[in-house]
Amino acid sequence: MAFPGTRHWTPIDAEAAAARGWDVVIAGSSFAAMFFLMGLPQGLSVLVIEKGPVQPHEDQLARGLGGAEDFAQDNRSGHRKDWIAHSLFGGNSHCWWACTPRFHPHDFRMGTLYGRGMDWPLGYGDLEPHYADVEDAMQIAGGGSDHILPRSRPFPFAPHAGSRTDAVLRAADDRWFAQPTARSNGGARAVCCTNGVCNLCPVDAKFTILNGLESFDRPGTHLLLGAEVRALDIGAGTARAVEVRLPDGSARSIRADLVALGTNAVFNAAILMRSGLTAPALGRYLHEQVSQMVTLDIDRPNYFGATSITGHGYGFYDGSHRRDHAAVLMENWNAPPAIRPVPGRWTERLLLKLIAEDLPQADNRVVLDGDSPRLIWQGHDPYAAAGLAAVRAALPDALPFRVEGMTASPLSATEAHIQGTTRMGRDVTEGVIDRDLRCFEARNVLALGAGAFPSCSPANPTLTLSALSLRAARVLA
Amino acid sequence: MTPTRRRVLALAALGAAALAFPPAHRAYLGHAADARVRDVVRAAFGAPVADDPAVAAFFDDIEAASAGGAMPEDLLVQLFATSTNVVRHAETTEPLWYGGLFLPYRSPCANQLGAAYGA
C-alpha cells in the first residue's frame, strides 16, 4: 500500500531497506530533502530515511507539534539563544510561517561588493529557474517585487490584499511590496484567513511537506521511518553506505550509490564529522538572522489585510551601508494586530519586524561531544545589531506617517533558521561542499539545506535552500 | 454570514468545556481576571462601547472561558478588537456587534480585523 497522500511511495522497514542497494539515499524529509527528491532524474531507486514519525495536521492541532529537538549548547554570548528544529516527517515545514522571499542578487556577492564575508560560488541567475519551480510547487502568492528580485515568470498566485498601511507605504516607496508567501491565496489549499498563528495554521493554509506531498510523488521512492542516519561509510573519497540507528538501539548499514543529507545544519555536520570528514569549515560558521519587533504609533489607520504578514520593505536592505552594518528586511505585520489602547485610534499602530543579516563567524560552531552534537555559540556579529540600530534611528523619518511613539522589543532569541555549518566554497580550504552541494571529500555525498549558506542574507532561507536542492538534483542528470 | 450566525458558530466551537483547551489554544487565550476585564475594555475603547449591550456577551464569554487568572491587558484589548466590529463601528455607520470570541483554533477565520471583514 502506498504511503498516504502519495501514489508511488512505498513504506519499507529497516531490514528490507538494508537487504538491497539504492541509487540514492536521502536523509531527512523537510524542504531540502523533498526538493532534492523532486529534482532527481527519473528511473532511480530512492530511499528516504526520516528518524521521526508522521504527525497529521489534525493531531498537531489536538496535541501540539511534536518532535522538538533540544540541542546541547555552550552559549557564551550573554544572551539567550535558541535553535529550533523538529524531527518528524516534514520537519520544520510544519512550524514555519511560510515567508518565501528570494535572496537579493547582491546577497550572493557580499565579498566582492561590500568586502564582507565571502561570495557564493553561484549567483542569483543560476538559481532563478529553480526559484520559480519551487514557487510553483509551494503555490506562492506574491507580486510587485520584480524590480528588486527579477523573475522569469509571474508568481503562481496574486498577492494577498495588503493592510491599510501597506497601501500608504507602497504609494510612497516602491521598495515596499507584498510579502511573497506560501500562505495560500489560491490553489489546492484553503485560503489564508488571517488567523495570525501561522506556526500551526488552524486551516492548513500554508504549504507543508505533508499537504504538498503530491509534488514529491515519484515512482521508485521508498520511505523508512523511525531510523536515524548517524554516519556514512566512506572510503577513498566515496560513500558506500549509510549507517542508521533504530529506536531499539540496533544499527543497520544501507548501501547507496549517492547520499544526500537533508537533516538540518546541526545533524548534517554531525553526520559528516562522525564519518571522518575533516574540511576546516565543517561545523563552523553557524549563524542565523537576528530580529526585533518595532511598534510605532502613527497617524493613519492600519489592518484589514488578508494574511498575517502583508508587506515587505527593502529600503534598508541593499546598498553601500552593508560595508558598515547589516542589511535589514522589514516585515509589516497585520495579524495578530497590535491595538493602540486609545479610543478611536485603535488601528493607528504599525507593527514592523526588522530582520538583520549576520556575519558568519568560525567560532560559532557544531562540535561532537562524544557522539552527540553540541553547539558552541559566541553570539551574533556586532554587524547585525548595528544594522538594526541604524534602522531604528532612521525609521521615523523614513516612513510616510507621522510617528508619535516607537518602542522596540529585545533582540530575538531565534529565527528558527540554522545556517552555515557545511558552507559552499571553491575548494576544501574554503568550504565543505561545492556549488552543486557535493562534499569535496566525498564526491557522492551532498549536504543539503541552509548549512550550505556561505553568507546570511536577512531574507528567510527556505525558498533559497529549496531551490539549491532542486538545482543540485537536476545537475545530476 | 450574519454576525449572529458567526457568534453562534464561534460559541459552538468554544464548546462546553471552556477550560479544556489543548496546548496550542491555551497560550493564546490565557486566563482573564473577570473583574478587571470590563475596566480594561472601558479604558481602551471608552465607556459607550464597553457598556453597550451589544457587546455584553463578550464579557460573559470571557468569564466562561477564563479561570480567574490574569490575561495581559494588551491581549484583552486585542481580543475585543478582533471579536467585535468596534473599528468598523467607529469608522462607518455600522451598529456595534459582537461575533463571538476570536480564538484562532476554536473559531478560525473570524478575525474582525482581517480582509474578509474590511469596510
Could you write a compact summary of the structure shown?
In chain A, strands 1, 2, 3, 6, 7, 8, 9, 17 and 18 form a nine-stranded mixed β-sheet that branches. In chain A, strands 5-11-12-13-10-16 form a six-stranded antiparallel β-sheet. Chain A has helices at 14-18, 31-39, 57-63, 110-114, 124-138, 164-172, 267-274, 382-398, 462-474, and strands spanning 10-11, 21-27, 46-50, 72-75, 176-178, 221-225, 228-235, 238-245, 251-261, 290-297, 309-313, 328-333, 349-356, 365-369, 372-377, 405-408, 438-439, 442-447. Chain A has nine helices and 18 strands.
Describe the protein in words.
The complex is a heterodimer of chains A (477) and B (119). With 477 residues, chain A is of the alpha/beta class. Chain A contains 9 helices and 18 strands. Chain A has helices at residues 14-18, 31-39, 57-63, 110-114, 124-138, 164-172, 267-274, 382-398, 462-474, and strands spanning 10-11, 21-27, 46-50, 72-75, 176-178, 221-225, 228-235, 238-245, 251-261, 290-297, 309-313, 328-333, 349-356, 365-369, 372-377, 405-408, 438-439, 442-447. In chain A, the strands form 3 sheets. In chain A, strands 1, 2, 3, 6, 7, 8, 9, 17 and 18 form a 9-stranded mixed beta sheet that branches. In chain A, strand 8 (238-245) and strand 9 (251-261) form a beta hairpin. Chain B is globular and about 30 Å long. Chains A and B meet through helix 3 of A and helix 2, helix 3, helix 6 and helix 7 of B.
